[in-house]
Amino acid sequence: MDIEEIKQFLVEAESKTYVAGKEGDVFKTELSLSLPREIVYEYPKVGFSKPDLRYIDRYFGGLKFAGQEVIFKNYDVPVWGRSYYGVISPTSDYTKEMILSLVKQGRSRFISNLWGGAAEWQSLVGNNFIFVIRFPNPNNASLGNFIYHEWIFPLCEYQDMDDECEEKVLFHRVCTGGIIE
User: What is the pLDDT of residues 110-153, one digit of tens each?
Assistant: First the structure.
């Protein structure tokens, strides 16, 4: 399957589900923490110009979470995947919803540029926060094979400009994955 086709579908799936604050076009389960929540997105089955692709994101947890995203061709053959683990800081200054809003703002600016081969990408979110994605090995910065970290920092901590700035990471997620053959 073509890498560019996977990238375009991933950008659309994330922008219509997670980044948009929606749970996808199919369903979400939230029975308990022991069962996964699931987001599913498919190209609308109208016309014949788009491939038969399905995106499924299954995840567990809340403030500490783990999950896996997979793209399937023909709706059932896995072609790409990303596994992740992350932590949202439970601080008194920031709510989980506010932190997730910042993450979504950062991701929405980033997803279409995700696989440009850069070692680090940064974006200001809100007025006082920075969203950072860093590839520890730029050779693993392609859609086909990757490991990276995502963070939300208070801007003053990241720039280390103010000694009084609390050293808090509001969000951290580690991702690894690539093409499945």
Answer: 666 666 667 788 888 878 888 888 888 877 778 888 888 988 88
Burial pattern 15-28, b for ≥16 Cβ within 10 A else e, equals bebbbeeebbeeee
Domain-by-domain residue ranges, the chain?
Answer: 3-179
């994605």: which residue's tokens? 133
**How far is the C-alpha of 132 from the C-alpha of 124, rounded, in Å?**
9
Cα–chain-centroid distance for residue 163? Answer: 31
- Would residue 74 be called left, alpha or beta, if left means φ above 0 and alpha means ψ between -120 and 50 degrees? left
47: left (phi over 0), alpha (psi -120 to 50) or beta: left
Are the C-beta atoms of 49 and 5 separated by less than 8 Å? no
